[in-house]
Predict the 3D structure of the following.
Amino acid sequence: PWLSTRNMRDAMPGMNRSDEEIASTIAKGVERLFSMQTNDGGLGYWPGASQSVLWGSAYGGVVIAMAQQQGIPVPAAQAEALWKYLSQNLRNAAEQKKAYELSQRCLAAYTLALAGRAEPSYHEVLFEKRKLLPSEARSLLALAMIETGAAGQPELQPRLDALLADEGLVPTSEVAWYGRPYETATRLLAEVRRNADAGEVNDLIDELMRLRQPVRGWGSTYSNAWPLLALSAYSESALGDLSANEIEVRYGGESDTVALEAKPSTGGVSYRFEGDATAEPLSLSIAGSGPVYA
């Protein structure tokens, strides 16, 4: 989370650490990831692993690529071995037909693009198999293209439109730690990276916030990571447009005002009740026009 939420420290007091503390924590995380590196350059599940896992390698690669982008020292030789491993695993993309296998390769394509090692020819291969791609894979492939500059190339807009369109029933990866939050978050991240002002962005944020549960957030560690990435990207894109706001909260005959500054920020109130908390409605009145999520 430190990689994705540095610009949201004021809004998340529990994560309000100095740049030095954050950099140290990220560096330790990168070191731990590379302790899982195997002889073929990929990452296993545990430190000292002897067998690499494509999904884990691509996911860990996202973290390592983001660390590089933020100026965190990364062992060059080990990173190079990981990028080669991911690249090699794209070589059989055209032969894959199962949703999960294709999803892993779309994640690998995105990781390589983040690392500055994009392979557009395999973007083409995977795009041609889009009818077989599950929702998250379509978004990850769109992200790979966007990181490679597709958002600024008019001739590629129809491809991004096709990947990010709502097409109803699509294949599913059928993996326990995937789920709707992962699908929604990757789609939101792609839409934000493409055009943060698009109408779909607010709808996706609303959906993502509805999916969040009081306990464990969006589910697994993996399912929580992607919403944080997406929301952080949105927060970064919206910084220039944020305005101060006041929200009046009413419950059980009481009323409180939450004041938010013109930057990513949070606030809260609490009420005591007996019996069924839903017996009385909680209502909000928002004074400004800026977005507020509860």
